[in-house]
Design brief:
about 140 residues, mainly alpha, Arc Repressor Mutant, subunit A, 7 helices
């Protein structure tokens, strides 16, 4: 499998996952950068604005707009960073946590349907493949 085929496969997987996410009413109205920021915070915990900017590969001013929009939707809030009171970090609100729980619940159902089509051996191979891909990317400095 060459790099173009790998890219096509990953792109197809991301697009299918994105379509799945749109079934959630709260998420369906989000811009892509808002969605990525929301999921980044939901999956990896509270983040400073600088960390979100680095993750999204954008400027802090763009992140301010993204976070403002997510705050207007009451999905995130800014709070003082307990380790550095000069900075703020972005956290999920109760509504944000509930929205993320809905996404995970729906995703769990989807994964259950898809995974039933694979043998245990295939699932181990798929899992090991994802683990190896993440490890290889991490070694190349492409860690989240």
């Amino acid at each position: 499998m060459d790099s173009l085929e790998i890219f096509k496969t990953l792109f197809s997987l991301v697009m299918r996952f994105s379509k799945f996410l749109l079934s959630n009413e709260e998420i369906s109205d989000m811009k892509t950068t808002e969605l990525y920021a929301f999921l980044y915070i939901a999956l990896f915990g509270p983040k400073k604005m600088k960390e979100i900017a680095e993750f999204l590969a954008t400027t802090k001013s763009n992140v301010t707009n993204v976070v403002d929009s997510l705050e207007e939707r009451e999905l995130v809030a800014r709070e003082m960073d307990p380790d550095d009171r000069r900075t703020f970090r972005v956290i999920l609100t109760k509504k944000g946590k509930k929205t993320f729980e809905e996404v995970i619940s729906d995703f769990d159902k989807l994964v259950g349907i898809v995974l039933r089509k694979f043998s245990e051996k295939d699932l181990r191979i798929i899992g090991e493949g994802f683990d190896r891909l993440v490890l290889a990317l991490t070694r190349e400095g492409m860690d989240i």
